[in-house]
Amino acid sequence: MRDLFRGYYKPTPEELAKIWQQCIFSFDANVLLHIYSYTPETQERFFEIINALNERIWIPHQVAYEYQKNRLYVISDQIKAYADIESILNKNFYNLRTELFKDHKRHPFLNTQEILEHLESSIEEIRAKIKLAQANHPNYLEKDNLREILTDLLEGKVGKPYCEDELENIYQKAEKRFSYKRPPGYKDAKKPVPKNYGDVVLWFQLIDYARVQQKPIIFVTDDDKEDWWLKYDGETVEPRPDLIQEIISEVGVEDFKFYMYHSDQFIDYAEKFLNLPVKPEAVKEAREIMLQDSATKRIPVESNYLRSVGYDSSTQVLEIEFRRGEVYQYIDVPPTVYTELMNAPSHGRYFNTNIKEVYSCRKLG
């Protein structure tokens, strides 16, 4: 029975150690893009590991394409964070001051003015730290040394693209897989075409490469959705057994092995495998960034019409929750429109004028 359902049996520690000794390592685009969110120390550890494994690395063409396509969006998000954080500070300080003066301007034993002055002084210190961090932030738009490092590391290690006929065939297969929720990719089914097919294209390219190489593969992805991972009670347990079973069956070699990690698990195991000094802060940071990226990105807004707004810059999908409870996604919305919506004096008025009848949408749920 084990021979028929090898994908459903988790490798033992001894089997995993053997896989690491023999395997080819492949990475998803989100792993490469998360490097821009790492501190310099974690970037250094990641590249140290990649350098050590360099002769055994390969990535699908779809991964390289998504990295190149989404790189500028990720960089822009990092730059935008400084203004966003300062805006949150200013907004909350304004609200706090309003609330204090509305109900507690005079109090026999509390000096609310003194409290506000202390808060304002603290916020000014924070603003100064934000400005300093912003000034020291590398200008990746002008000179992207991270991409240069990756380019050198991945030279000759990127798969070939599918031709148009092959892609059309895969798109048709993807639609069929979506219809009965065959992983991976069905969680992206509602994304715009052809972005919704990305994971299926990537998966087929991995399978094609595995057939040729017939070596074990470890795939590292920071996608945390259930079409990649087996979930139980809200927790990620292990890679989807049916995914592993599919690639094992497609390769058709008796001793072929396939396994998956998130970035934090990969860094943690690589430190042990390569006998590197342990850096638990790098593992923790990689995990936090992975979870932060996979979390729902809607944030509450003050509006009688809209309740919360989220935006995914990599797919240019704007997600809006209305006060009535409905949630809609608006497709191919430029980052500037999202920024203007969030900065508008009236979010509802801006939405009605600039988004409602301008961009195609779909209702969720």
Describe this protein's structure.
InterPro entries: KTSC_dom, PIN_8. Residues 24-243 form the PIN like domain. Residues 303-359 form the KTSC domain. This is DUF4935 domain-containing protein. The protein has helices at 13-22, 29-34, 40-52, 61-104, 112-136, 145-153, 164-179, 198-213, 241-251, 263-273, 280-294, 335-343, 347-354; strands spanning 24-27, 217-220, 229-232, 235-239, 258-261, 299-300, 306-312, 317-322, 327-330, 361-364. Strands 6-7-8-9-10 form a five-stranded antiparallel beta sheet, covered by helices on one side. A three-stranded parallel beta sheet has the order 1-2-5. The protein has a two-stranded antiparallel ribbon with strand order 3-4. The model has no long low-confidence stretch (mean pLDDT 90). Helix content is 53%, strand content 12%. It has two domains: 6-73 and 142-292, Rossmann fold (3-Layer(aba) Sandwich); 299-364. The chain contains 13 helices and ten strands.
